[in-house]
User: Fold this.
Amino acid sequence: MRLWAISDLHLSQEINRAALADVPDHGDDWLILAGDIAEREEHLALAFETLGARFGRLIWVPGNHELWSVRRPDEVPLRGVTRYLRLIDLARAHGVLTPEDPFPVWPGAPGGDLVIAPLFLLYDYSFRPDDVALADVRAWARAARASCADELYLFPDPYPSRQAWCAARLDEAVRRLSALPPSARTILINHWPLRRDLVDLPRNPRFAPWCGTRATEDWHRRFRAEAVISGHLHIRRTDHIDGTRFEEVSLGHPRQWHQALGVAGYLRQVLPAPTAVAAEVAVAAGD
Assistant:
C-alpha cells in the first residue's frame, strides 16, 4: 500500500482532462490532491469520480483556483468561505477527505502513529522582501509585471482581507495539530509552500507574496513532519530540510509536462519514503 500525491491538475485545460482518464487503477493506495485541481465544480467532481474509482482513498486540499469566484452567464458565484464550504460538501459527497475532517492515520506505519494532516492555510503576503511594506506589495510586484488573478477572483468574505482569512486558518490548524499526541509524526499537506526559501521563481520572482506565509516556516519541526506536500509553484522538486522531506508535486499547464508520460507519470510517491528521489525542475507558471 502506497501514498501518492499530485497537485495543479488544472482541469480547465482539455488536454489535462483527457489525460486524467488514463490514470491506472492503484488498488488500495491513497492519493493526495494538493489543490488547484479545477476551477469549475463539474471538473472537480470529474477528478473525484475518476480518481476515487482508482485509489482506495482521496485526500484533497483547496488551492487558489478552486476558490475563485468567476461570474458565468448561468450562475451567481459563491464567494469566500461560502464557496469553500460548498467545495467541502462536494468532496464529502464523493467520499474525499478534506481539511475539515478528522486527520486520518496512515495504517501500519512503523514506529507508531503517522498522521496525515490536510491543511488550508492561504497566504498573507509575508513572502515579500523585508523592505517592502504590505501596502506597497502589489505595486512592487506590478513594477516587474508580476500579478496574481486572485486579486480579481479570490474573495475573503466574510473576512475583511485574505490576510485575515489566512490568520484564522492558521489559528485553527495550530489548534488541531497541537492536540495531536506528542509521539505522533505527521505528513503535512497544503497547497501553498510552508517555507519562503522553497519559493524559487526565476521567471517571475515577484509572484512570491501570493505563495504562502512566514508563520509556517517552522511547522515541519514544530509538528514533527516526516514530509510536507505542496503545489502552486508548478516547479516539481524535492528538498530536505532539518530531516524533513518537502515535495512540490505540481502537474501544471499542458506546456509544463510531457503528455507522453501521462498524469500517472507525475504522481509522486510519499509513502513508503523513496530511497532516492531526484529533484525535477519544471517551468514556473506564476499564475
Remarks:
- The chain is about 25% helix and 15% strand.
